[in-house]
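Input/output pair, single chain:
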Amino acid sequence: MRRKNPTSPSRDPIENDFLQALRRLQDESPNHKALKAAKAVGKLKINFSTVAQEAGHSRTLIALENSRYPRVREAVRIAQGETPSEPRTSGDLINKLRADIAELRVQLKKAEAHAVEHFDAREKADRQASRWKNAYDRLLKKLPTAEGNVVQYGPRG
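Output:
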């Protein structure tokens, strides 16, 4: 039996409506007439009521403690600035840890790519510096060795 990925998008259209409404409110581009007016006045807030109003669904679907859409409820609470709640069951904990692992893997890949990019730039800079030093040394050999006309590079000796 295939497991559902905890970070995968929801297949429930109502949950998708709530998540899209939350994104619109976070971007400050609501579609609902009353919320547009609140935005114009500068009083647009993100809470369960405004998300439900923007989504066109009942507030009780996400506002109650044991709601049908816990992902949406948690996303709204995070958008309000609250800290994420602790998982209640071992299944919730496992899903949270899997999501954390997936996020950390993405961050690790970005960091590794960034390190490789810097390493390549350093290698290129070293090759260029060596090439310029060799060119400088060749030019020094071609110039007359009058002490007053030549600028010395590096230590003398």
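The radius of gyration is 30 Å. Residues 90-142 form one domain.
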